[in-house]
Design brief:
alpha/beta; five-stranded parallel β-sheet; nine-stranded mixed β-sheet; globular; 25% strand; 450 residues
């Protein structure tokens, strides 16, 4: 249970991290009447949402899409107007090399011959009725999809590639926290309805798999987050960039935070930075939790297959990369003649960031499948602690670490702060609002200096 510190008005509340979660937490605290300082180790806000301008190309790390009602647009005036409207067209490379809809659909079953279709349906029926969950991602996927369908769609390849270990060693919690689309799709009623629609109509559902969305500004994420920082700075919020947390201590009614640049005193601390970083700052030892890192390469091509949509996932048996985001189709510019896009590869904790190797692997795989010609490496980016690694039984370890940090008086929230899968900015902001509700009392109005 999180303690509820009563803010000592001699000190501000300090928020660690200026990503979406940190900005949302700081906004909520400011609205409640607190003085807030935001500490961020990078030289700008945005967290894992980063843009790079390389020649005529603007590349990104992180998802660039927002739904029309995204909560991030409420953080500052006119943010939605900065973000162009586009169609999100998501595709995947199937195990046979064909380009299909993302993520999966009953039509995939109909691509098999009659014998394969019968075997898959029998396998699905048997799995639903007889397979017993054992806590692993592998067993849950097989129970929901059947073993044959799990393999033939390429989903088995994708989750293995994502984690760098077998799905048998990943907790089933990943299915509910990261695979929300597939979780909803494989509910019995939804699966039956989708299968019936497929049988009644042989037409492709591709047109229905184009979602109207907003995307980050054409110039990059910096425009969006700079406006948020400017808005809150004008209201009295203080941002300190380039500060990495080294240690955290609680002393009676306040906290002492030592960074690479200064020592800060705070009435309360809200952390949105990686859970392991906070644990080490508090207790001078790692938490024991592991995260996946992410290597992103920025590439351009003289030609790109026209059927790849603007987001392409790798469900093929080969290739290390997991997703490509194609900016030249999202931000068309007649003066830029080359296609350009980012390619993401998750890295296990012991794997190094090697952009030359990642590029060579992607080029070999993409050329083999006939997806690209005349490929060039334009740049790269590495993101540490990008995704939590849900090994079997990790929930108990996560809860134990969270409880230990909570008993020290630190309030944690957001995707990094709670070792959580929150794939959208709206999900992050909603979670922050829930986590902070009632945890810090509003400051008393008095004549005392703050």
């Amino acid at each position: 249970m999180t303690e509820s510190p009563q803010p000592n008005t001699a000190f501000p509340i300090i928020v660690l991290g200026a990503g979406v979660a940190g900005l949302a937490a700081a906004a909520q605290l400011l609205q409640a009447g607190h003085k807030v300082i935001v500490l961020e180790q990078r030289d700008h806000a945005g967290g894992t949402h980063r843009s790079r301008q390389i020649g005529p190309f603007t590349f990104d790390v992180g998802s660039i899409f927002y739904e029309e009602s995204a909560l991030i647009f409420d953080l500052a005036p006119s943010l939605r107007d900065l973000c162009p409207e586009v169609l999100s067209i998501q595709r995947r490379i199937a195990p046979d090399g064909s380009i299909l809809l993302y993520p999966i659909e009953p039509r995939d079953l109909l691509r098999q011959n009659a014998r394969g279709l019968v075997l898959s349906l029998l396998d699905l029926l048997f799995s639903r009725m007889r397979l017993q969950r054992d806590g692993s991602l592998d067993t849950l996927c097989r129970k929901r999809l059947g073993g044959r369908f799990f393999a033939v769609t390429g989903l088995q390849h994708y989750v293995t590639r994502f984690h760098h270990v077998s799905p048998q060693r990943i907790d089933e919690e990943f299915f509910f926290r990261r695979m929300a689309i597939i979780e909803r799709f494989t509910r019995t009623r939804n699966l039956a309805r989708s299968a019936l629609r497929t049988l009644l109509s042989r037409k492709s559902e591709a047109a229905g798999r184009q979602w109207p969305m907003r995307v980050r500004p054409r110039q990059g994420f910096n425009v969006l987050f700079a406006r948020i920082v400017e808005h809150f700075s004008a209201r009295g919020m203080v941002f300190s960039f380039g500060e990495s947390v080294l240690s955290l201590e609680r002393e009676s009614t306040f906290f002492k935070i030592r960074t690479n640049r200064a020592t800060h005193l705070a009435s309360a601390v809200v952390s949105t930075i990686p859970l392991d970083t906070v644990h080490q700052a508090l207790f001078s030892q790692p938490s024991g939790l592991e995260s996946l890192n992410m290597s992103t390469i920025f590439v351009s091509a003289g030609w790109l297959h026209p059927e790849t949509g603007n987001v392409l996932f790798n469900f093929h048996a080969e290739g290390d990369w997991k997703r490509a985001t194609i900016y030249s189709r999202i931000y068309p510019d007649p003066t830029i003649t080359r296609a350009y896009f980012s390619v993401e590869t998750t890295l296990s904790p012991e794997m190094p960031h090697d952009p030359a190797l990642a590029f060579a692997n992607f080029r070999a795989h993409a050329e083999q499948l006939g997806l690209v010609r005349d490929l060039r490496l334009e740049g790269h980016e590495w993101v540490e602690s990008c995704y939590p690694l849900y090994a079997m039984g990790s929930r108990e370890r996560i809860d134990a670490v969270m409880d230990k940090i909570s008993r020290a008086g630190i309030i944690t929230t957001g995707r990094q702060g709670r070792f959580e899968y929150l794939p959208t900015s709206t999900g992050v902001i909603a979670q922050v609002s829930s986590d902070l509700a009632g945890t810090i009392a509003a400051p008393e109005v008095s004549g005392r200096a703050a």
